UniProtKB/TrEMBL annotation:
<dbReference type="GO" id="GO:0030261">
    <property type="term" value="P:chromosome condensation"/>
</dbReference>
<feature type="compositionally biased region" description="Basic and acidic residues">
    <location>
        <begin position="9"/>
        <end position="24"/>
    </location>
</feature>
<dbReference type="Pfam" id="PF00216">
    <property type="entry name" value="Bac_DNA_binding"/>
</dbReference>
<feature type="region of interest" description="Disordered">
    <location>
        <begin position="1"/>
        <end position="24"/>
    </location>
</feature>
<keyword id="KW-0226">DNA condensation</keyword>
<dbReference type="InterPro" id="IPR010992">
    <property type="entry name" value="IHF-like_DNA-bd_dom_sf"/>
</dbReference>
<dbReference type="GO" id="GO:0030527">
    <property type="term" value="F:structural constituent of chromatin"/>
</dbReference>
<dbReference type="GO" id="GO:0005829">
    <property type="term" value="C:cytosol"/>
</dbReference>
<comment type="similarity">
    <text>Belongs to the bacterial histone-like protein family.</text>
</comment>
<protein>
    <submittedName>
        <fullName>DNA-binding protein HU-beta</fullName>
    </submittedName>
</protein>
<dbReference type="GO" id="GO:0003677">
    <property type="term" value="F:DNA binding"/>
</dbReference>
<dbReference type="InterPro" id="IPR020816">
    <property type="entry name" value="Histone-like_DNA-bd_CS"/>
</dbReference>
<keyword id="KW-0238">DNA-binding</keyword>
<dbReference type="InterPro" id="IPR000119">
    <property type="entry name" value="Hist_DNA-bd"/>
</dbReference>
Amino acid sequence: MQACASVDNENRSHEKGTTLNRNELKEAVADRAGLDVGQADRALSAVLDAITGALASGDKVTLAGFGTFETRERAARTGRNPQTGESMEIAASTAAAFKPAAALKKAVSER
C-alpha cells in the first residue's frame, strides 16, 4: 500500500526508529508526488489545517487504509500535584486521538 510505505531511509541521517520531522516529511511528499518542496510544504500545511479544523468542530476525519482522527472526552478526575503530593481536581477536557486502520497496523507490524 503506497500510503503506508516507508520514507526513503537512504537520505536520513538518523537511526531506524527515530522521529521523522516536518522537513523530512515534506521532502518525502515532494519526492513521491513529483512536487517541489515548497508545494509539498503548502500541501502538508493544508492537510494538517483541514484535520485540525475538523477536529476543532467536533468532526472525525477518516482516511481509508490509514486511520481516523477524532476527539475524545476526558472526564474530570482527581489527581496529585507532583511537587506537593496534594490532591487536586483535574477538569474535564477534550483531546485529539488517532485510531489506525487495519492496513496501517498490518504495514507497521510487517516491517
